[in-house]
Amino acid sequence: MLQVLHNPRCGKSRNCLAFLTEANQDFEIISYLQNPLSEAEIKELLQKLDLNPLELVRQKETIWIENYKNKSLTDHEIIKALSEHPILIERPIVIKNNEAIIGRDLEKLQKFI
Protein backbone atom coordinates (compact mmCIF):
# COMPACT_ATOMS: atom_id res chain seq x y z
CA MET A 1 0.00 0.00 0.00
CA LEU A 2 1.17 3.51 -0.79
CA GLN A 3 1.76 6.05 1.94
CA VAL A 4 1.31 9.78 1.33
CA LEU A 5 2.79 12.55 3.44
CA HIS A 6 -0.08 14.99 3.07
CA ASN A 7 -0.83 18.58 3.99
CA PRO A 8 -4.58 19.21 3.53
CA ARG A 9 -3.95 22.95 3.02
CA CYS A 10 -1.70 22.31 0.00
CA GLY A 11 -3.35 22.21 -3.43
CA LYS A 12 -0.62 19.98 -4.91
CA SER A 13 -1.09 17.56 -2.04
CA ARG A 14 -4.88 17.49 -2.53
CA ASN A 15 -4.36 16.96 -6.28
CA CYS A 16 -2.08 14.03 -5.54
CA LEU A 17 -4.72 12.36 -3.34
CA ALA A 18 -7.39 12.94 -6.00
CA PHE A 19 -5.10 11.42 -8.64
CA LEU A 20 -4.41 8.34 -6.51
CA THR A 21 -8.12 7.95 -5.76
CA GLU A 22 -9.03 8.18 -9.46
CA ALA A 23 -6.30 5.62 -10.22
CA ASN A 24 -7.93 3.24 -7.70
CA GLN A 25 -4.76 3.12 -5.60
CA ASP A 26 -4.96 2.14 -1.95
CA PHE A 27 -3.05 4.61 0.19
CA GLU A 28 -2.53 5.63 3.77
CA ILE A 29 -2.40 9.33 4.62
CA ILE A 30 0.42 10.39 6.92
CA SER A 31 -0.44 13.68 8.62
CA TYR A 32 3.16 14.74 9.12
CA LEU A 33 2.27 18.23 10.37
CA GLN A 34 0.32 16.80 13.31
CA ASN A 35 2.76 13.94 13.87
CA PRO A 36 6.21 15.22 12.84
CA LEU A 37 8.76 12.77 11.55
CA SER A 38 11.75 12.02 13.74
CA GLU A 39 15.26 12.72 12.49
CA ALA A 40 15.70 8.99 11.87
CA GLU A 41 12.47 8.85 9.83
CA ILE A 42 13.59 11.85 7.76
CA LYS A 43 16.95 10.18 7.06
CA GLU A 44 15.12 7.03 5.93
CA LEU A 45 12.79 9.12 3.76
CA LEU A 46 15.75 10.91 2.17
CA GLN A 47 17.25 7.53 1.25
CA LYS A 48 13.98 6.44 -0.36
CA LEU A 49 13.77 9.73 -2.26
CA ASP A 50 17.46 9.64 -3.17
CA LEU A 51 17.78 13.31 -2.21
CA ASN A 52 20.12 15.30 -0.03
CA PRO A 53 18.47 17.11 2.91
CA LEU A 54 18.45 20.56 1.30
CA GLU A 55 16.49 19.20 -1.69
CA LEU A 56 13.64 18.25 0.69
CA VAL A 57 13.34 21.79 2.09
CA ARG A 58 10.63 24.23 1.03
CA GLN A 59 13.05 27.13 0.85
CA LYS A 60 10.38 29.82 0.36
CA GLU A 61 8.73 29.12 3.72
CA THR A 62 9.00 32.00 6.17
CA ILE A 63 10.53 29.77 8.86
CA TRP A 64 13.36 28.83 6.49
CA ILE A 65 13.97 32.38 5.30
CA GLU A 66 14.00 33.87 8.80
CA ASN A 67 16.02 31.15 10.53
CA TYR A 68 18.13 29.19 8.08
CA LYS A 69 18.57 30.89 4.69
CA ASN A 70 22.15 31.85 3.77
CA LYS A 71 23.57 29.90 6.70
CA SER A 72 26.12 27.17 6.21
CA LEU A 73 24.23 24.17 7.60
CA THR A 74 25.32 20.56 7.85
CA ASP A 75 23.01 17.81 6.62
CA HIS A 76 22.34 16.95 10.27
CA GLU A 77 21.29 20.54 11.03
CA ILE A 78 18.94 20.57 8.03
CA ILE A 79 17.39 17.27 9.08
CA LYS A 80 16.93 18.62 12.60
CA ALA A 81 15.22 21.73 11.18
CA LEU A 82 12.89 19.51 9.11
CA SER A 83 12.02 17.49 12.20
CA GLU A 84 11.39 20.59 14.33
CA HIS A 85 9.48 22.44 11.57
CA PRO A 86 7.64 19.84 9.44
CA ILE A 87 6.06 22.61 7.33
CA LEU A 88 9.50 22.86 5.69
CA ILE A 89 9.19 19.40 4.13
CA GLU A 90 8.30 19.32 0.42
CA ARG A 91 4.93 17.76 -0.25
CA PRO A 92 3.22 15.57 -1.12
CA ILE A 93 5.54 12.62 -0.78
CA VAL A 94 4.37 9.23 -2.00
CA ILE A 95 6.13 6.18 -0.57
CA LYS A 96 6.04 2.73 -2.15
CA ASN A 97 8.09 0.06 -0.38
CA ASN A 98 11.71 1.29 -0.39
CA GLU A 99 11.17 4.12 -2.87
CA ALA A 100 9.54 7.52 -2.66
CA ILE A 101 8.77 10.47 -4.89
CA ILE A 102 7.67 14.05 -4.37
CA GLY A 103 4.25 13.80 -6.00
CA ARG A 104 3.86 17.33 -7.34
CA ASP A 105 4.21 16.23 -10.98
CA LEU A 106 1.31 13.91 -11.76
CA GLU A 107 3.04 12.44 -14.84
CA LYS A 108 6.01 11.36 -12.74
CA LEU A 109 3.61 10.08 -10.09
CA GLN A 110 1.74 8.01 -12.67
CA LYS A 111 5.00 6.37 -13.77
CA PHE A 112 5.96 5.79 -10.13
CA ILE A 113 2.77 3.97 -9.14
Automatic annotation (TrEMBL):
Organism of this sequence: Flavobacterium cheonhonense
Gene3D superfamilies: Glutaredoxin (3.40.30.10)
Any Pfam family: ArsC
Gene: arsC
The family this protein is said to belong to: Belongs to the ArsC family.
UniProt-recorded name of the protein: Arsenate reductase (Glutaredoxin)
Annotated transmembrane regions: none
Keywords recorded for this protein, A-Z: Oxidoreductase
